[in-house]
Design brief:
The structure holds two protein chains of two kinds. By secondary structure, chain A is of the alpha+beta class. In chain A, 53% of the residues lie in helices and 15% in strands. In chain A, a hairpin with a 2-residue loop joins strand 2 and strand 3. Classes of the chains: A alpha+beta, B mainly alpha. Chain B: This is Carrier domain-containing protein. Chain A: Belongs to the acyl-CoA dehydrogenase family.
């Protein structure tokens, strides 16, 4: 066994880190304050090929392995969780089109998703439906050569600007997947502001009022929308969030190394106080452990091993809960400064809380991961 | 996993063994409806699709995503057989 990045993966990590340090870190607090990510930044992500990471080269994408994709999520998450969340939902949509789309879907959407000409997003949650995804209330019925959709989708990441949504609705009592374009008749969005964390992720509520889409925009058969398409997209999303949580943890760690080295109390840098060192020890240990679980999940994805599904749950559970604890400790170590907008740890703290809720809440994970112990 | 010299019985045996990891102490018959038995949730369905793809070296595609293709061991064997044998 050899746990080490390949030369190519290490090189990619260095490039991702340089991009994030130059293009994102200096502006991340501004994105948070203004609750938006400028289009120019998204275009830069596209130019770097970051929006086509999960798409093979022959289909116009970057063709990255899943470990490299994970590293990109860590680095973007280290800089700005809102931008990482764009990569998450966009990659979920692109992956679904790649994996489950017809030739027509691929020709209409895939190259434009890869180039960033259009932004993809994921639309499952509703005002009354979160973890219990099979109970979505949005409906779709076939009328002639079109599906007519009615309902509301809520908390859609980048719903304010996304052009196409991987959306789930009931058809004859079966959850089914669709590609819904922003310009569809009867489709509108309402921005959601004032969210606790990932404030730049441009959330929206989607409103489907007799929204008409071509019947060809259905993905997969009736009733397999959630079981195969939704779950595989959520697996990519969960993997992305797990790595993004590692990014938050790493950002906290780096901020605390800097702060505790320069902040002096009782005549010495605070890093020389034993209880501070205890917190730093836990911080670095849990960050590394979370990263290792993510590597494991990524390695299994690259080898097509079905165990990656539950290993990704485990990685996301550990990484998101660790990030929350680490971010809380980071604020604590910064004292009053940590509660101020002058330091980014308050943003990390707010963003980390979101990681415990999205792509399966901590409690849903605790229910499912325990079951895994009784299987293999 | 190589598909050389793969037989329908092999496909059924491997599929039954995989499902058996999740649902212990149940002797699943080839024609038993796993949906009707209440076995299937979305996480299991995804793992089942991944298993079939890796184990038999095939791609499960959009047009294959029909519940009837995954309803029984016989149906899954037919799906695989149609792609590799």
């Amino acid at each position: 066994m050899r746990i080490e990045l390949t030369e190519q993966q290490a090189s990619a990590k260095a490039a991702f880190r340089a991009f994030v340090d130059h293009e994102i870190v200096p502006y991340a607090d501004q994105f948070d304050r203004e609750e938006r990510v400028p289009a120019a930044v998204i275009q830069k992500l596209a130019r770097e090929g970051y929006l086509g990471q999960v798409v093979p080269e022959e289909q116009g994408g970057t063709g990255s392995d899943m470990v490299t994709f994970g590293i990109l999520n860590e680095e973007l998450g280290r800089g700005c969780s809102s931008i990482r969340s764009l990569l998450t939902v966009h990659s979920m949509a692109a992956f679904a089109v790649l994996k489950w789309g017809s030739a027509d879907h691929k020709s209409r959407f895939l190259s434009r998703l890869v180039s960033g000409e259009i932004i993809g997003a994921f639309a499952l949650s509703e005002p009354n439906v979160g973890s219990d995804a099979k109970s979505v209330e949005t409906s779709a019925r076939l009328v002639g050569d079109r599906y007519v959709l009615n309902g509301r989708k809520r908390w859609m990441t980048f719903g304010q600007i996304a052009d196409v949504f991987l959306l789930f609705a009931q058809v004859e009592g079966k959850v089914t997947a669709f590609l819904v374009e922003r310009n569809s008749p009867g489709f509108s969005t309402e921005p959601i502001t004032g969210i606790l964390g990932t404030r730049g992720s441009m959330l929206a509520e989607l409103r489907l009022d007799d929204c008409e889409i071509p019947k060809e925009n259905r993905l997969g058969g009736l009733g397999f929308g959630l079981a195969a398409i939704g779950t595989s997209a959520l697996d990519i999303g969960r993997y992305s969030v797990a790595w993004g949580s590692v990014g938050i943890a790493q950002a906290c760690l780096e901020a605390c190394v800097e702060y505790t080295s320069t902040r002096r109390q009782f005549g010495v840098p605070i890093k020389d106080h034993d209880l501070v060192r205890q917190m730093m020890t836990n911080m670095i240990t849990n960050t590394k452990a979370a990263r290792m679980l993510c590597y494991q999940a990524g390695y299994l994805k690259d080898s097509g091993d079905s165990r990656t599904v539950m290993e990704t749950w485990i990685a996301k559970y550990f990484a998101s809960t660790a990030a929350m604890k680490i971010a809380a400790d980071a604020v604590q170590l910064h004292g009053a400064n940590g509660c101020s907008e002058e330091y980014p740890v308050q943003r990390y703290f707010r963003d980390a809380k979101i990681m415990e809720i999205i792509e399966a809440s901590t409690q849903l994970q605790q229910m499912n991961i325990a079951q895994y112990a009784y299987e293999y | 996993m190589t598909t050389d010299s793969l037989t329908v019985d092999d496909i059924k045996a491997r599929t039954r063994a995989f499902i058996g990891k999740f649902f212990k102490n149940i002797e699943l018959q080839d024609d038993e409806d796993i949906f009707a038995l209440g076995f299937v949730n979305s996480l299991f369905a995804m793992q089942l699709v991944m298993f079939i793809e890796k184990e038999f070296g095939i791609a499960v595609e959009d047009q294959d995503l029909n519940i009837d293709n995954f309803r029984t061991i016989n149906a899954m064997a037919d799906l695989v057989k149609g792609k590799v044998l």
